[in-house]
Design a protein that fits this description.
The chain has 21 helices and 20 strands. By secondary structure, the chain is of the alpha/beta class. Strands 13-12-11-10-9-8-15 form a seven-stranded mixed β-sheet, covered by helices on one side. Strands 5-4-3-2-1-14 form a six-stranded mixed β-sheet. Strands 18-17-16-19-20 form a five-stranded parallel β-sheet.
């Protein structure tokens, strides 16, 4: 188990500066550094040339300014020696007759290394080449600052599995940023001290640039720009700070604040390593790297905070903002429908067979089928729906199945499977009073057998209805609802299904008034408890068998699925994150119980996923053995359960 779950707390710090007032700036940096370290920062990034101010202009030609910055850096290194963090501090530095725009990395009382800016902007409002030499041509690979200090653009700062590199402002905006090489050499975090002035629209471009660089390099990227106190003679600096990770924005500050500003986010090193291990493109590029780097030892930053300071969605598959959610649903629904369009067109089949239970999954499947037929311009009478009541079917679900088909003008037949299921139980010499797995699965397989035979009779295909969450848990009857000719929901997690159905209900109301009667039916289906309805209803005719009572809440399982498969998180880390995400919703023993259940089912039910029917991938997670997930059906779960069992005493009642 990795210490601190392999998080590192990154801080972008933008203290006020006064151009030329090095001593005062140094005091502000020290105060800000202590505040950041006190809040758990493992690495603290200050803006470009923060010791002198970026806007000193021709004062950079003054030896007094350059020497004062050097002396203040040495003082700061000693003053911050008691803090368990690394600090990136910008200053001008004279080396071998040239002046360089640099960032010094300070930790444990020492200056560990100094990185010069590679690309020197000298256009529009920028005149840096008037004062600074480019870091691409250096007179030495070390400088003397009381001791010999590594100097160059080839430095990686590493300690205890954590590695970061530094590039400065314009370096990121260049066609081939130095961070590209640094990440390929092993840097998981890139730190950019910057002085990017504010122009209309520039913040959006800057944000996109940083997000995209973090995505390309599979890294965390922190950016701290000059702010309060810089000269506004010709430009204004807003102090824009951002921390991104693998294309996602973890944290961003407000611009134009007058006081010192701290921005925190916890970078996930385990996740970044998982992404790099999983990316063949990254590994291939890594193999071609011919730029050598020097490593500089730093202490591994401690991470001992009670909570991870980063966005943590309780429902990672469901966007929290309605407009994003609608866009996501529209795109997924189109992928599902287009996948079926291609399959039907390829085989020349205009008859599809669908078992419609009145539950969420089969409802979504029907909506996808109808959309595919609309796109193809085919007669909807080719959509053959069958609702097949058994021992546990309620009037609510059966009624909703029939009303939905009526509202959509789609044929629907009722095929009662109770009698044939009873006959099968008799053949098995199985008592109908024994409400066990045989009792349940006889019904599931009878339904699938009817659908398969009916599809042969009609020269059509059976459309599968099971979703991604059910596949993860193996909550499907082998050779029952597990099987079809094309499974349209196979990439959709359970927590997203109801939003897709609601999206279609809203679309029908807005765009198809002739089918508006379907919308209230769809919403009642959304409100119906999730159930296979294989056990008899209660005395009031309501659903007695609720899936989540047996396997656990789907919102927990979808969270586990995302963290385990998408992020490669360890059991202890999944538990840690779940406890944070679901704090107040479930007590820790409940989360622990269902996480153990998830691991056991995920491993033991792989054999069902090893022979899945075709179906479209719609998101970043898919469990098809032909696509994203290849796992032996007899893999042992012991390693994962042992890690969880080591925590059991912490989460007992």
């Amino acid at each position: 188990m990795r210490e601190g779950h392999d998080f590192v707390r990154i801080c972008c710090a933008v203290p006020p500066v006064k151009p030329g007032d090095v001593r005062r700036n140094g005091q502000f940096l020290e105060e800000t550094a202590r505040r950041a370290a006190g809040e758990g920062a493992g690495v603290v990034l200050f803006p470009e040339l923060a010791l002198t101010g970026y806007t000193c202009g021709d004062l950079f030609f003054q030896a007094s300014l350059i020497e004062a910055a050097r002396e203040e850096l040495l003082r700061l290194a000693g003053a911050l020696a008691d803090l368990e963090a690394s600090f990136v501090i910008g200053l001008p530095l004279s080396v071998g007759g040239g002046l360089y725009n640099t960032a010094a990395v300070v930790s444990s009382g020492s200056i560990r290394g100094i990185v010069p800016k590679t690309h020197i902007p000298n256009n529009n409002e920028y005149y840096e080449a008037r004062w600074f030499s480019p870091g691409s041509r250096l007179p030495a690979d070390h400088v003397y600052l009381g001791e010999k200090v590594p100097f160059g653009t080839d430095l990686l700062f590493t300690g205890g599995g954590f590695t970061f590199a530094v590039e400065i402002c314009e370096d990121l905006w260049s066609p081939l940023p130095p961070s590209t090489y640094a990440a390929l050499a092993g840097a998981q975090v890139i730190l950019n001290p910057s002085a990017s002035n504010e122009l209309v629209g520039k913040a959006d471009y800057r944000r996109d640039l940083i997000r995209q660089q973090s995505a390309r390099l599979l890294c965390a990227y922190a950016y701290a720009s000059a702010g309060p106190g810089e000269s506004t003679t010709d430009t204004v600096f807003g102090g824009h700070s951002l921390i991104c990770e693998n294309g996602a924005l973890l944290a961003e500050n407000g611009r134009f604040t007058r006081e010192g500003d701290l921005l925190f986010a916890d970078g996930d090193l385990e996740f970044l390593n998982h992404e790099r291990h999983n990316s063949s493109s990254f590994r291939e590029t890594l193999a071609s790297l011919d730029k050598p780097f020097r490593t500089v030892d730093i202490p591994r930053p401690l991470w001992n905070q009670g909570k991870a300071q980063r966005p943590l969605a309780r429902h990672p598959f469901v966007p929290d903002r309605p407009e994003w959610r609608e866009k996501r649903c529209r795109e997924i629904f189109s992928i599902q429908a287009e996948g079926l369009v291609t399959r039907l067109s390829h085989i020349g089949c205009q008859e599809v067979v669908l078992g419609l239970s009145g539950g969420l999954d089969s409802t979504l499947a029907l909506l996808v089928v109808e959309e595919a037929f609309l796109r193809l311009g085919w007669d909807r009478k080719g959509i053959r729906c069958y609702t097949m009541p058994g021992f546990g079917t309620t009037a609510r679900t059966k009624g909703n199945a029939e009303k939905l088909c009526e509202a959509l003008d789609i044929p629907c037949e009722v095929v009662d499977i109770a009698a044939v299921s009873t006959a099968q139980l008799e053949q098995l010499d199985h008592s109908p009073d024994a409400r066990d797995i045989t009792y349940e699965n006889v019904q599931a397989r009878q339904r699938t057998m009817f659908l398969m035979n009916k599809s042969n009779q009609l020269k059509g295909i059976v459309i599968g209805t099971g979703d991604l969450s059910e596949l993860a848990l193996g909550w499907c009857t082998y050779n029952g609802d597990h099987m079809s000719m094309y499974a349209v929901n196979t990439g959709v997690p359970k927590t997203l299904v109801k939003y897709l159905v609601e999206y279609v209900a809203h679309t029908i109301e807005a765009d198809r008034p002739d089918r508006a009667a379907a919308a209230p039916v769809l919403r009642d289906i959304i409100a119906t408890p999730i159930s296979p309805e294989l056990l008899p209803p209660d005395e009031k005719g309501n659903i007695a068998q609720k899936t989540e009572d047996q396997v656990g809440p789907y919102e927990l399982h979808d969270f586990f699925l995302y963290q385990i498969v998408r992020c490669g998180a360890s059991p202890a880390k999944v538990l840690f994150l779940a406890l944070q995400a679901f704090e107040g919703a479930y007590p820790p023993p409940v989360i622990f119980k269902w996480l153990r259940t998830f691991y056991w089912r995920f491993f033991s039910q792989q054999f069902k996923r090893s022979c899945l029917p075709d179906g479209p991938k719609v998101g970043t997670i898919a469990l098809s053995p032909r696509g994203d997930w290849r796992m032996p059906s007899d893999a042992s779960v012991n390693l994962w359960l042992e890690e969880l069992n080591g925590l059991i005493h912490t989460y007992q009642d």
